[in-house]
User: Fold these one by one.
Assistant:
Number 1:
Amino acid sequence: MSFSIKTLNPKNLELKLAMRMRQHHAEMQDHTATPNQLKEALEKFCQERGFQKGNAGSPDHLSAAIITESNELFSNFKTLSDRRQRRMLRNPYTGVEANKELADVLWFSLLLSARHGVDLSKAIALTGSDPMHFYAYSLNDETSTIGQLKEYVKSNFDRPTQKLTPREIAIELMGESCALFEQFRFRSTDQMIESFKDPNKRPEIDRRLGRIFGLTVLFAANNGIDLSWVLLKKLAENEERYPADKLKGGSYKKYNEIL
């Protein structure tokens, strides 16, 4: 018996998503998952659906998507006190929407880095308060787990950043993503790609992406969120919403428009 995401009630949908995650991503949580493993899972999802074609995966579109998702993350906290922000996130029922927006910020950051060869873990090290620390040299997307990156940002980001509230981190994410977008604004696709090869432009791109990724990791670390788990839950949900067999050829229809 097959189910449609339109007819599943929330309880059954959560059960189905949990089963899919256990089947495909059971071992991927923050203490074991590396950024490269998460990138590979997202790239596989996009390739199976043709989502990497055309302008959808261009640097300006992906950085604009990070701006949008950062703004939506902020909207969850804009009227809440500092205490209520943290209480909301630690509640498994009220924190769901914020976790989804955080997963979206991570999603587009990982895709942008994967498609243009940016090692986010090394980029994080460049934004720490002590980038010359010996531990920073060992960070890389291939072997560093998200859990290790959490430890790094909590001990090496400057103290004012470490103490930011969820709302303040979301504001920082909006600012950094806008600065990242400026690196690609008004440029052709070829010019954007060349930016990643230009020794004068690449450091700033890496620094902005590292800051975005680092703030995302810090947000999760400060609020008890398993970043890998919320991302893979979002991936499982999108696998249900966007079945690969109905999206061959790179269709960009919204899930409720797919027959």
Note: Residues 202-222 form the longest helix (21 residues).
Number 2:
Amino acid sequence: MSDTIISVLGAFAPLFSARVWSHADVLLTGAILCRAARTVTSCLRVMGLGNERHFTNYHRVLNRARWSGIAGARILLGLLVALVPADVPLLIGVDETIERRGGVKIKAKGCYRDAVRSTHKHVVRCFGLKWLSFQLLVSLPWSQRAWGLPFFTVLTPSESANQAAGRRHKTSIDWSPQLVHVVSRWLKAGRWLKADRCAGRKVYLIGAGGFACVRLAHGCLQHGWSLISKLRLDARLFDFPGEPVPGKRGPKPQKGKRLTSLKSRLDQARRHGEEATVHTKRTVSVAHPRTEAYPHSLGPAGRPRSGQSGNSRRIRSKISWHSSGAIGRSTRI
């Protein structure tokens, strides 16, 4: 292997003891060279250790040795940030993935919707493990599209698994703000990452319509991030709550007055002739104002209604929460 790859693998050596690292290094190198399923046995075979008598020492790296996966994610993020130019903002994608697993000993499995096989009319479900992944979007020389390089992945057990274990159930929306807090703390720490790489850089969190949530948006704004996600044009938007009245009893208001829907704002801007770009099957220039809005309830907004599954003119909108509070939108019809 080249010296560059060896130096990259050497960055993870502090996670292990000297004895464990001698086995972990073999597994990492074998996982890169292996073309079949990346099991411990396959990694040993590709490294020429198929007849190793003490093969259990390599299995113990994963099931018995003590090392921190969170610390490994932090080191991996530092290596990936070095691939992004200093004048380019950091684009972090968040997404869920289902690992199809079965068996009695798989305690955290659940029944989920298969996003690949399902359609708007037919829903396919499968059993497996749900993982929440943070990915750094990087432009590579041999591809015209940005690649999502995962650096932080968290297991989200199903509700039935949490109930059986006596734990509080946490959805992907509950996990996402915590991951934002952890990654933001990593980016601000200068002792493990070059300070000029992250100082003053903008960070954008990009997710699907299921991540269009006020709680996640507030978590991003607290750390100076911007959230970009899909949102329906007919979603209910509310203003910020006003100042509480002194001496008034009862719960404090969580939202202000109802705001005009995005569809009405788009029609109004079109009448005034403001410029914008609407991405359709063909690119058309129409109105596209920047608004100051506070989305209150965005839970089911990312999913189409039951009567619109077969409509080829379904309208979707992409909303971005910026650190200044402004919302940008690109509409797709």
Note: The radius of gyration is 24 Å.
Number 3:
Amino acid sequence: MNVLTSIAVLGFLIFFHEMGHFLAAILQGIYVDGFSIGFGPSIIKKKINNITYSFRAFPLGGFVSFPDEDQNGIKANDTNLLKNRPLFQRIIVISAGVFANLLLAYIILIVNINTVGIQYDPDPGILVLAIQSDKAASKAGLEPGDQILKIKDNTLGIGDEAVNLLVKEIQQSSEKSINIEILRNNKLKEINITPQNIDGKGTIGAQLQPNIRQETYKPKNILELFKFVNKEFSSLLSKTIDGYKGFNNKFLIYRSTIKRACKNCRNWCSII
């Protein structure tokens, strides 16, 4: 069931993405001759107004196809061919799929906030979700549900910044005892914990998250709704861009490594 659900969600995302390309072309009067969800042999296919719509056997992709001049008697200089359109119009068609997905994400945020509600800002400190047995946190007596408020007499803030600060302190304190203050059952308690050294970094074997309340509240008006949606959307977009940057950096490192390996291989071959 999970596999079918994942395929259905993926198919919907692909449909929305390809619909962006499709509409960007159609609304500009650019010829389109195919709109397909999936790859492989067609399961369902229908031609309407010289455009073939199809659903194919493997719904793990999709495409919008554009005719060449040798199809349907179209002249090579026809201005409605994609390749004959000005650059900015072609850019609109190419980028429309991404913008369609961004629009979908924005719509989902609106629906989610209207139905589920807005989470309250995190309370101070960090919540311990789970503890691994025989790890530093377990040995020190840390328990799921504890709220970590201080580390080394430094008060932790709220949200992701507090988690990042705590993780950084732990990683830099490998095999060194550190003092933390926790809140358990409305009582303050101090614990000394010694992070274990794994690959040169300290770890304690605990799953942490910002101290977020479970309750939510509905936006008071449309202004508050869109203010929160814009905030969440900006955060999502920023994290996505950072993820792509990280992927690109890894790709460049990988490519550089391959180039060096190939160069070394040529050197070895010449020596042999």
Note: The helical segments are 2-26, 87-115, 136-140, 159-171, 222-271.
Number 4:
Amino acid sequence: MELASYAVIIIIAGTLVFGTRKRADLTPVLLLGNLLIFFVEILSAPFSYYPVSSPAVQELAFRPEDLAEGRFYTLFTSMFLHADFVAHLLGNMLFLFLLGTPLEQRIGKARFAAVYFVAGVVGTLFMGLVLADQPRTLVLGASGAISGLMGALLLLYPRDQIPMILGFLFLPRVPVWLAGVSWLILSVVQYAGLSNSGVAWEAHLVGFIAGAWWPAPSPGRRRPAARPPSGLPTSPCWSRWQPRLPSRTPWIPYARRSIPT
């Protein structure tokens, strides 16, 4: 394994360790970890304008053949790798911030981590089945995991309001149900209609479904949000200028080539 791959693994481990600290929110830690890993990709790539050529991507991104050869760890490590800065990394990190912050505030760090990582792994695993006849195709990116955050928000808090970006338009307060419908149209339906988009829309869809299913508990249980939520993120760095709103309970109780995801 190349030095760049070891560096990526160390950053992933550091992200997980630091993210579990009591005073740290996981969402900004994940965001920082992804940015640092992309920096490693750029530095280690033979062609800096083509991060996929980095040995870290070649060794840690998921390929369908990894399932047959026992490299299951790539189902996890591929979530921290991205194919380019603007279209892939920047977009994913922006939506990680917009969706992850309010969801983590509402359901807590542990359940948030479960939704994020389970949705990401399940989405990538499904791509392994879709691309079974293309065993060397790279699959990388956090879109499946981030789609899971949208699915969880839609299931638990459809009537809440969150900030959202639609195209070049920033909307500070959008109903979650409307954001969820827009997300499905923009990240699934749009790409599903393009045969050569290069986007693993199947991972987006399956991640969305996994995120919507995972937080649901046994029938009859009803738990309040972990922290007082509002329409905008409420992490400590925002609390100085954002008013705190009353706590609410969830609507439903916790009842090809390289393919960016």
Note: Strands lie at 138-140, 161-166, 169-175, 258-260.
